[in-house]
Records
---
Amino acid sequence: MRILVADDDPVIRKQLEVSLTKFGYGVIECADGKDAWEHLQKEDAPNLMILDWSMPGLSGLELSKRIRQFEKEPQPYIILLTAKSDVNDVIEGLDSGADDYITKPFYPHELHARLKTGIRTIAVQKELLNARNQLEIEASHDYLTGIYNRRAVMQLLKIDLGRHQRNKKSLCVVLFDLDHFKQVNDTYGHSAGDDVLCETTKRISSVIRPYDAFGRYGGEEFLFVLPECEQENAFNLCERVRTIISDKKIQTEDKL
Ligand SMILES: [Mg+2]
């Protein structure tokens, strides 16, 4: 776990570095708030930070406010470190968006205990984010084939229709199905039918453009939403899709 430390006092920075390294943390040192802010723009910026309240240029308090305006997930855990110990200062510090508050001189073991709270908070946030992302995927994707489900592809169609009408661009929509699919299920069983649907979507995904939306509309019905696409190009795509499905037999796991 890396921790960003911002303090304009080199002695405090050194003390923090020594303590944090002893507890097994990596330390990114910043000499002022501006330096810290620049570090926080980076892709791999730490989620845990100790900010001095009083720094020239950009104070820890202002920095906390800025960080909270960030739509970063998980939200960074901020500990304010300061010589101010009045209860009103504590309130102001926490109101700025800081999660915790430590007064100087700090006690290394207390700091470590508070950092552990921060680490637990970040871990819980990450778990919630993963669960939310997983639910979003499950709610918008077809369980069998992994492509968009009907609700998601119709939603994308609605968004794209509005956008294309505004921009006066051409949008093509293709609804198509697999002929005689019922015969596959009746002859080879539903498991083989599932294999056919999965292989079909795999082949189709290899010929459509990355920005085309492709969803399962119903059992063996599919829908394309083709943004900025003229009718002729849509016909060509449909023909490519038809041939990529019909050209090669689909081998299924379950046979008679
Ligand atoms: Mg200072």
Note: The chain is about 50% helix and 15% strand.
---
Amino acid sequence: MNIAILSGKGGTGKTTVSTNLAMTLGVSYVDCDVEEPNGFIFLNPSILKSEDVFVEFPVIDNKKCVLCGACAKVCQFNSLAKAGKEIVVFQKLCHDCGACKLVCKTGALSYSKRSIGKLETGISKDIICHRGILNVGEPMAVPVIRNLLGGLSKEDHFIDCPPGTSCNVVTSLKYADAAILVTEPSEFGLHDLKMAVELVKIYNIPYGIIINKDDGTENMVKRYCTENKISLLGTIPYSMEAAALYSKGIMLCDDEFHREIFINTAEKIKEAFAW
Ligand code: SF4
Ligand code: SF4
């Protein structure tokens, strides 16, 4: 089973939950937050494999090009423009859809490849860890995420999704069998959690909520879960100790008190997702 861990809002503790659950349960970890993949800081795996992710972009042969402009007209992403006596290619805007080649009748248009990021696989205490890394300045994370998740084995994985509810999260959810939404008990947390819930509902997969930095009261997120019949899978208390461990890069599950929390949460997850 692939379990996506997401949060409508950044900074809720999604990576903390993902890495600690992976380590507690001995399940593979996948960092899909390719613009800022920081799960490896905590898991510190030995890297076993690294490979580039390539995308294609059009190249124009000016000797064959008759400047008909059909390629620029069909491109929905403004990656091609007719400027004077040439077709200008904006490589980073290209979505690799192939439409321009279909409409070029002179054979002037071909494709070349460029690297936009890389995939890494490592191992940490017998846990297989994967991550995608988008190169600085690249605008499109989706191809890296697609390559990362498309290459996973049939084994269980915790997928640490990008924050928010953008197309990067949508792409990640396509590979998930269940979802855990991590939030914090604040107005912002609840607002963005609701958007994440609406997104997950579209996929018709089982899901539940974990509250990080829980204040121990019957707060707004708990009331939301009760009112909407959403499983509350676990709560991680707000504490200076957790913050101190985090700031030193120490896994919470290495601490006895927090380890117990993740063990109990893992049991609830198994039950809720019939896993
Ligand atoms: S492949 Fe698609 S996105 Fe890229 S330039 Fe051609 S039409 Fe535009
Ligand atoms: S469709 Fe082909 S021939 Fe026409 S402008 Fe584009 S590259 Fe040139």
Note: The chain has a mean pLDDT of 94.
---
Amino acid sequence: MDEKSVLISLDRKDTYCTLEFSDNEKFELGYLEVRKNCQCAKCKPRQINEQMKIEFFEEISRLMLVKPKVEQVGNYALRFEWPSGCSSGIHSFEHLRKISESSGKKL
Ligand SMILES: [Zn+2]
């Protein structure tokens, strides 16, 4: 894994979290963005094309926002547990960094 993708701290707020990576880059990332990009067996198949993504995002937007539980998985990923239908999504640090850069807010 690229060194810049190592997550060194996570601060959970009500609607977003703050992620800090080992290269001192910090991002604010909404839980909605994390969920939209979930790679679990339930969510991933719903992101295969633009039309499906739109429907998936609309559905999530209606469900949310509930603060998910977050648990570290080994030293490479986080597991987000949502009260609404998705609980096994493992988000690697690399994946979180990618979402942070594309949909998060750089601090
Ligand atoms: Zn999921």
Note: The chain has three helices and seven strands.
---
Amino acid sequence: MTRIAIIGGGISGLAAAYSLEEHRRAGAVEYRLYESSPRLGGVLRTEQIEGCIVEAGPDSFLTEKPWAADFCRALGLGDQLIGSNDADRKTYVLVRGRLIPLPDGLMFMVPTRILPTAFSPLFSWSTKLRMAKEFFYPPRGHDRDESVASLVERHYGAEMVDRLADPLLSGIYGGEAANLSVRAVLPGFVEMERRHGSLGRALLAARKKMPHTAGKPAPPLFTSVRKGMEQLVETVVQRLHKNSLLLNAPVQSIRREDHRWAVSAGMKTDVYDAVIVALPAQATAKILSTTSPELGRELAGIGSSSSITIGLGYDRGVRRSLPPGFGFLVPRSEGKQLLAATFVHNKFPHRAPEDRALLRCFFAGSSAERIWPLSDDALVSRVRNELEQILGLRAQPIFSRVYRWKSVMGQYGVGHLERLDRMERQCQVLPGLALAGNGYRGIGVPDCIRSGQEAVKRLLAGKV
Ligand SMILES: Cc1cc2nc3c(=O)[nH]c(=O)nc-3n(C[C@H](O)[C@H](O)[C@H](O)COP(=O)(O)OP(=O)(O)OC[C@H]3O[C@@H](n4cnc5c(N)ncnc54)[C@H](O)[C@@H]3O)c2cc1C
């Protein structure tokens, strides 16, 4: 029987465990999952407060990435999947203290409709002129990676980086557009630039080629689980073998010994044929550094960023006073700590009763680091102060909750894919080791689920 250790009980590790479960039942595999904390799910955590469903970590996942919804269906949660309320989808950007809606036809940060963009006060005339010129941008190939900011600036100028690229990406990666690898984060843009030159023309061409879906409503942009993301965790955990799950079991090191893997947690060391490390890259670096200092260095080089979310519940009056739409983004040039806020009651209406407004405020990367030392109360007053400046919101919240996530998000710096290639070569001399999680080939919940599932596939196929 093959013995496999999974390290980390976030969604990546749980997806790996679920993939191993049927092999365990068939008697072919024995697995054990080590989780350092007293609970499973990692950053997926949901609280019910005053009738509101408050997400401490992710609140949903991108519908176009199928692995999370497929996983939910496999678990029998198909009827619990809910879509975002896209009929009311509107996102604002704070520009010189005013909330300006994103114009129609903007795909990520690429304008595909002339009039709404031309009349939007979101961009200055010089940026609008660059957008028009961008349509004539010639194809351009690269043999080198560069930052997202550098590619976007080449096409649309620095204002586009500041007002859109950077806030959109910091909301996802917790990092800054100036540091993120365009090849790892926006590979589609690199390919569009290589083939078409202009991103605007490339997207229009892609749209024309899309299958005709006349009469069919477009799928929602975001999907979630009815009772919150933790419902997914609870459901997976119910399907796993209880004795295979070790809580309060922080792994200190994994070492290669006699062609097997020795996993040390607390005072105990156990030996396995294979190990799946499903931790943030920084944590993976620590436990692997003795076995492979080289791999440890590469992992440490990926790095991880921290984030803070603050959930605030308000009464009916506030709900009426807030603007329609999903929420707003705050460019760094506005001088605030807040990066984004979601009006949850609009995005997923059944997450708050009709007489409640639910706000989810997000800080990440350097803005989270700056305010990290503050107490929860001080954080709430800081965010209330910024909400007052942005929304004129002075009301006392009915409840507030602060959630801190230290070093949990992988940072895909320039050269990330080359780093992954080097790491793959280093892993070849460490048979039976598979890495999963958000530090490698995708940061969102769907990619993490896929990473856990693929780690199992590769191990069982003897490919690692
Ligand atoms: C605030 C926030 C909002 C997000 N929003 C979204 C969103 O809306 N949509 C989306 O798709 N994605 C979102 N993400 C990203 C996504 O949620 C994460 O990338 C993903 O859930 C990470 O899962 P994971 O299992 O790889 O890691 P984690 O969830 O970090 O799990 C790792 C687990 O390993 C444990 N651990 C750590 N060290 C050890 C050790 N030495 N031994 C044993 N166990 C250890 C930890 O306690 C933890 O439980 C968000 C992330 C955050 C933090």
Note: The chain has a mean pLDDT of 95.
